[in-house]
Design goal:
The protein is α/β, with parallel strands linked by helices. The protein has one domain: Oxidized Rhodanese, domain 1 (3-Layer(aba) Sandwich), CATH 3.40.250.10. It is 46% helix and 14% strand. The chain contains 6 helices and 4 strands. A 4-stranded parallel sheet has the order 2-1-3-4. Helix 1 packs parallel to helix 5. The longest helix has 21 residues.
Length: 122
């Protein structure tokens, strides 16, 4: 039992560190369903394999580590709303920071896939 508690604590610590380093910061106040209804680009920042296992309808897959190289194929207007998500919100937080550093002004971190499904009632 003691090993299990240490393992859980270790996983939580790694998650908190990743969230701090890579952005995390889910935009909880954003009206994501309305943004998507109004035409926001939805980007799944997970790997291609993860994307193939399930994703938000109409989302495009651009892994977080290449979002800066690939975004131009999907959004040239830097004021267009963009919703990014991943599994937990950390990779999408990193993608959000990258996009903002490139001048995109309306990037929202939707957090994890599960949260997005709940918000969109999919």
């Amino acid at each position: 039992m003691n090993k299990l508690i240490k393992l859980v604590m270790g996983v939580l610590a790694v998650g908190l560190i990743a969230n701090f380093l890579f952005g995390g910061g889910v935009d909880k106040d954003a009206d994501i369903p309305q943004l998507i209804k109004d035409g926001a680009l939805v980007i799944d920042t997970r790997t291609a394999r993860e994307f193939s296992e399930g994703h938000i309808d109409k989302a495009v897959n651009i892994p977080f580590d290449i979002v800066d190289q690939s975004i131009g194929r999907h959004a040239t207007d830097k004021s267009k709303p963009i919703v990014v998500y991943c599994r937990s919100g950390a990779r999408s937080g990193s993608a959000k920071k990258s996009l903002e550093s490139m001048g995109y002004t309306r990037v929202v971190n939707g957090g994890g896939l599960h949260r997005m499904h709940k918000l969109l009632a999919e």
